[in-house]
Amino acid sequence: MRIGLLNLEPKYKNLAIEKLRLYYSQQGDEVEDYFALNNYGKVYASSIFTFTKKIIVPQDAVCGGSGFDLTTILPPDIEKVEPHLNFGFTTRGCIRKCSFCVAWVKEPILQIVIRFLGQLWDGKSKLITLYDNNILAFPEHFESICKQSLELGITLDFNQGLDHRLLTPDIVKLLSMISHKEYHFAFDHPSSLKSVDRAIDLLQSEGINRCIWYVLVGFNTTFQEDLDRLNYLKERNQNAYVQRYVRDRRYIPLARWANQHHIFHGMTWEQFIELPENRYYRNVAKA
User: Fold this and answer.
1) Is residue 51 domain-shared with residue 127, that is, in the same domain?
2) How many domains does the chain have?
3) pLDDT digits (tens, 9 = 90+) for 25-59
4) What is the structure's pLDDT at 138?
5) pLDDT of 263-272, one tens digit each?
6) Which structural domain, as residue segments, surrounds residue 135?
7) Do 277 and 139 share a domain, yes or no?
8) Same domain for 131 and 45
9) Do 135 and 60 fall into the same domain?
């Protein structure tokens, strides 16, 4: 049978698509990325974001992912497949129940699903990307994964970020020891200021001087509160990444300023929007 696989956000690696690819290939089927002009016995489509347009998805496709719904899951025989493509999950779920996030709704049971990096690793790559939503909720497992990365000489990328509220001196010590991509944390609301401040102090005490902080905007905060959080991170010599919950045009220039780190550290927000070439941004910000 000819199988077509459609990843609606191709810039992001899609674990479900790769599990399907390997499973059907092992069954002897012809598997390829979906092309609209080809005929397929079955088409699988996966999407992460609800705002992604679904117009190219054929009517008879089997669809899954949070961009479609929060209930569709892979059959057990396919879920247990391990593609060894150097990315994936070692844990599922999250202890936080943030109202803006679907992770805890989609995966309400917090659990360890992979205990050994070798289950993700192809044996050659020097980088493994982990998609765990809250690996620090399992501190002993986290320690094991870090020690395995040291033994294998692998760099870790905690792609979904780490929970700054769960940092301890021992965890930060581990973070300082392993080879890693720039660490990501979240500063979702002004009420987290004290815990963010404590986390930065803790990280810097072990030489982790600058991290990226996701800053959720346009959800339950004002524009000024969002700007205040960004200015705080700038003062603490941290990098920021604005995540827009709503498509409010005012946040376009704010993201343009903050998400380009050389600009963020090189000038203030007021200086940025007053630049002659930023007339459009200035008008949007003041609308």
Assistant:
1) no
2) 2
3) 999 999 999 999 999 999 999 999 988 999 999 99
4) 97
5) 999 999 999 9
6) 84-285
7) yes
8) no
9) no
| Secondary structure of the chain as H, E, C letters | CEEEEEECCCCCCCHHHHHHHHHHHHCCCEEEECCCCCCCCEEEEECCCCCCCCCCCCCCCEEECCCCCCCCCCCHHHHCCCCCCCEECCEECCCCCCCCCCHHHHCCCCEECCCCHHHCCCCCCCEEEECCCCHHHCHHHHHHHHHHHHHHCCEEEECCCCCHHHCCHHHHHHHHHCCECCCEEECCCHHHHHHHHHHHHHHHHCCCCCCEEEEEECCCCCHHHHHHHHHHHHHCCCEEEEEECCCCCCHHHHHHHHCCHHHHHHCCHHHHHCCHHHHHHHHHHCC
pTM for this one?
Answer: 0.90
* Pair (93, 66) in one structural domain: no
End position of a domain, from candidates 83, 114, 139: 83
